[in-house]
Amino acid sequence: MLAKLLPAIGLGIASMLSIGSIQAAERYKSVEYGYALETVVEGLQTPWSMAWLPSGEMLVTEREGSVYIVRDGQLSPPIAGVPAVLAKGQGGLFEVLVHPNFADNQFIYLSYAKPRGDSATTAILRGRLVEDRLTDIEQVFVSDTEGKGHYGGRLVFDQAGFLYATIGDRQASPSGDLVLHPSQDRSNHHGVILRLLADGAIPADNPFVGDDSALDEIWSYGHRNPQGLAVHPQTGVLYSGEHGPQGGDEINIVEPGNNYGWPVIGYGVNYGLGTPIHSSQSEGGMEQPIHYWVPSIATAGLTIYSGDKFPHWRGNIFVGGLRGRQLARVVLDDDGKAGIYEETLLAGYGRIRDVRQGPQGYLYIAVEGPGRVMRLVPTAAPLGKK
Predict the structure, then answer these.
(1) CATH of the domain at 205
(2) Coil, helix or strand at residue 56
(3) 368 and 316 in contact (C-beta within 8 Å)?
């Protein structure tokens, strides 16, 4: 059965710990670890994504439209060559992703709200990062969607070098005949996860190649607004975090050709009114989440931990919460197909937009209000194991 939410445990107390240029931290307790929450860098507005170069330097995007390099705890000037974005509402600059062979090709990828008249669509570009400047910029993908929000924008490479990208439903109304909702229509990009080659070309073995009723680049469909995306470092399984309405945030295993049900099935209701959205919570031919939240925590970035700083957390999924202002830790069963336990970390701390594992095995979070990057560092032996 899906785990129920657990209350936050532990309160922060002052700590004098600092590492290099990392600033002093507060200490917390989880079920298994004592840990310090350290400030890595401040002075950001709305940080959206983090990634690391082979040098160990961190890249950070701001939704307002800038990409920074973090060096010795300081932000570089914004890197040059970043395209104009529609930084309005939920729109702006989203993910930064480093190519697996960056040392050879210097490619990084950016997803963003590409202006289109008075609106915008989700787009992906790549360019070479050379001397703090983007050069040789290429448009990898441009969505056919427009709308007020729900851009998606998460990117990840799998172990075979395929590029996956999320596109939200662009807030298309979930009313009327639900089966006719754009997210149930495979001939457009509303509410989909894409699978591309690194240059934006379409892999020949994508599930809908040759199907005249569907776009060849679609890997899965029936999504609302996937705001987290990660490949399991051991199994290679693709997991997504789905930002639901009022209730119904989800973690899904993403498999080729599958329909994830939005808005026909789900666990949420309409904002404010609490009236039903879905025809049911399950239906044949539509996938069930492996974990869900009611009420919503407004899921954002997602990572699967594999480091050695918190060995008891290996294989756990960590999800940032915006409305929940928390970091959620979800323990999977032995098959990785169900969430069997959940712990709420940092409840009330801030809007956590992204969560990542850094190259040294620490967990990093990007927090809004004020904009900053923090990291979790163990301060005590494990307290137990669930």
Answers:
(1) 2.120.10.30
(2) coil
(3) no
Catalytic residues: 150
Q: Reduced to 3 states, what is the DSSP secondary structure of residue 165?
A: strand
Q: What is the pTM of this model?
A: 0.93
The order of strands in the sheet holding 66-71 is 47-52, 58-62, 66-71, 74-75
Find where tokens 């202002």 sit. Answer: 325
Give per-residue pLDDT as tens, 265-320.
999 999 988 999 999 999 999 999 999 999 999 999 999 999 999 999 999 999 99
Cα separations (Å) of 286 from 216, 220, 225, 279, 301?
20, 11, 17, 12, 24
**Residue 1 falls inside a structural domain:** no
Tokens 């860098």 correspond to what residue?
41
Burial pattern 261-276, b for ≥16 Cβ within 10 A else e, equals: bbbbbbbbbeeeeeee
The structural domain count of the chain equals: 1
What is the residue range of 350's domain?
Answer: 13-324+341-378
Class of residue 23 by CB neighbours under 10 A (exposed 0-12, middle 13-18, buried 19+): middle
- Give the DSSP H or E segment for 53: none
pLDDT in tens, 191-233: 999 999 999 999 999 999 999 999 999 999 999 999 999 999 9
